[in-house]
Amino acid sequence: xxxxxxxxxxxxxxRHVAQELxxxxxxVRILDVLLDQVHGGExxxxxxxxxxxxxxxRDRGTISAAISDIDAVIHLAAEVGVGQxxxxxxxxxxxxxxxxxTLLEALIKKPVxxxxxxxxxxxxxxGLYETPDGRxxxxxxxxxxxxxxxxxxxxxxxxxxxxxxxxxxxxxPDLASIYALTKYAQERAVLIFGQAYDVDAVALxxxxxxxxxxALANPYTGVLANFASRLANGKRPMIFEDGKQKRDFVHxxxxxxxxxxxxxxxxxxxxxxxxxxxxxxxxSEVARLLAEAMGVPRLSPEILGKSxxxxxxxxxxxxxxxxxxxxFEPSHLLENSxxxxxxxxxxxxxxxxxADMKRELEERGLVS
Length: 368
Ligand SMILES: NC(=O)c1ccc[n+]([C@@H]2O[C@H](COP(=O)([O-])OP(=O)(O)OC[C@H]3O[C@@H](n4cnc5c(N)ncnc54)[C@H](O)[C@@H]3O)[C@@H](O)[C@H]2O)c1
Prior knowledge:
alpha/beta, Rossmann fold, three-stranded antiparallel β-sheet, binds nicotinamide-adenine-dinucleotide
């Protein structure tokens, strides 16, 4: 039986990954520092038959102990808020990049067969676009002047509207936040390490992950969790810009399966691979669907008409590479999964800190 270390295994995605691995006969050890912002001091449940080490990935002694007698590592431990990364810079670079560096140094002394790291769609910045005559635009981006003036959509130099298309892995990264920078550094560090030390290394570029277990009290994470916390407290979801920006929502159980496949499929080694649903949804549509699923359709979204520093307009995944290298196929679409998500929210404590998050960003001039 293979033994796998899951760093950040008490987090939203980590718990599902650990469950998926246990169900498929792996022995799982979790290393997690149990951050207050994520867990709020609450007890976390991990799958029976898995082992928990409470500790920090930046701590050499802890990480060395955690990787003893381990065959593979899934590295998820990270600080995950895009907005917060713009002012808690040392904290984000410290956990995400120094954490990964410390793990990799430990793996030089105690090699494993495979390491899989969670990267992120955020590394792309804007997704891929095409011009009206079908030319690929690898580096489309909005000027801050246009964004401040409320011109949200992307235009070509000639002033034509650019068409957002599914983003593939060939799209050039365009790092627009400190979080994105740290995720890209994590991804590259793991892939470079894999090549240098002959360890199979895989980076999964996750799109917007949703599902039961999202940190509802943490306003810096997923948009769906933020909307759910607002709705559960009788408040309208707050939407930046005009709500027509498009994203790709992938179910956490599909993501957990993708991590298992990344451990098992040899052809994936050496690659960075998108994990999304391959579909796109406008943010307004998502807020509306969720309000319906939660039984409060009258709580229509509040469109703020303001933008956040580092935000992009559109990004949704081309998942052809995941299909080819991992045999990955998403099986839980957003529109079919919101009932289950709403039921979970009803049984959870959903503290709404959305307004605090907006104020924190405004105080630092990161909303305009
Ligand atoms: N949720 C998404 O939509 C999404 C999208 C793209 C990428 N990702 C990536 O997936 C991974 C997991 O994200 P998540 O949504 O489950 O986040 P999460 O915040 O729920 O989980 C992260 C876990 O890591 C732990 N952790 C943080 N710092 C640590 C440290 N120094 N040492 C040990 N443990 C530490 C936290 O306590 C937490 O349990 C992250 O690497 C994140 O960047 C998530």
